[in-house]
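G.,

No rush on this.
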Amino acid sequence: MSSKPQVTEDEVAARTGWKLPGSPRAWLFGSGAFALAAFLVAVVFGALWLAAVLNSDRGLAASRDDVIKDGTSAVLAYTQVDYEKLDDYFKQQKDVSTEEMAKQIDQAMPNYSKALKDQKVKVTTTIQDIAVEELNDHDGKASFLAAITTDTSAGGKNGTKALRLEVQMTRVGSDWKLSGIDQVPLVAAGQ
């Protein structure tokens, strides 16, 4: 068996003209300390990233909850009516609406009031479900579908009707206001 001669650090320095300052042991501890510092930085920035992601999700969930809460109030304001309390009906609609929608309510109020009084219309609404379709928290825009049931008394007749509404909401200050509402046709099963 042949044994290889051991080359010392001084021999390497003599042949190459290059020598590491300090002892190899110091270099070993220095590299270990550097690796530990890199690991700690990665852990800290990873934790900060995770906190930012969770806060973003939490903020979006809170906005979705606000849309549902304010949207529920808006749907009820627009669909529940009592011909004996029309001032309250139109005030509630304007309270939950954007300025543009409030102007449309003011324009339609005289004719709509007369028709509601003439037919002695009373409507109670039950909200079955609300599902947020779109939510752009940055731009303050949202839309949702609402499945509702209305119990109507008008012209001496009573009836119950299931409706599906598509509602657009716009954030005004810290509140979500109704900026559009349309009826969506119901499709029976198998169609």
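When you get to it, here's the other one too:
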Amino acid sequence: MNTILNSVQGAGLGLRRSFLNEIVELASPAIDFFEVAPENWMLTGGKSGKQFRAMTEKHPFICHGLSLSIGSADPMDEQFLYALKDFLALHQIKFYSEHLSYCSHQGHLYDLMPIPFTSDAVLHVANRIKRVQDILEQRIAIENVSYYAAPGQEMSEIDFFNAVISEADCDILLDINNIYVNSVNHQYDAEAFLRAIPAQRIAYAHIAGHYVEADDFLIDTHGATVIDPVWKLLAKAYELYGVFPTLLERDFNLPPLTELCQEVAVIKNIQTAWDQQHAQQSA
């Protein structure tokens, strides 16, 4: 069983500083857990630091990294990893995930860049993931990312992703919106991609909105509401693999917190429907 299932379940929301004051006072039964980028909170003090500490004492949390640059050729920032380990322990956060990408090359690039889909890259990235797991002394999850070009491609996205996950022996953060966005941009079958995921490694999922630049070109922004085909793909994932923890990401064009909670409630409703159906089938 994935470590995360011992610490979070149900439907979650990415915690953003802009609604921290409001959410501290909110008691929403729809939000079962929260996720934060540790880079945004590790050095936070003052009122916000105290509020965050109060939140982690009250609610289950996950950390989702932004800056580890797991696919980079730059040396691993092990100082950051040891600081992260202390942060996880302080707030009793049991799980950490990162992107299958890189964001540095002799300095930070401030964007998530695609790793070439090559056999050499598989070994390079997997070895770095193993080192992260050794330092943190726990398994981590790696997220399938959106990408807009695949330079030097030797294998398909799903074959590359699965090879990295297997070689590193880590878990999966399954981003449903990224599958949908990539399926449109690179013209593949989203459900076929989903069916090829090793189910036993799925720790939790992300779901988010995107921007439609053209009918055949979508941009993963986390800045809009989730659209119906993405909700349907999430339901298909539950149908295939059972219900797993799922978190709503929203980073830009933030609506009122009540609207975010409504989207989290949609996740919860889909989960409940599939749990009930599974119970009926098992009866």
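Residues 257-282 form the longest helix (26 residues). The two ends are 23 Å apart (CA to CA).

Enjoy the weekend,
O.
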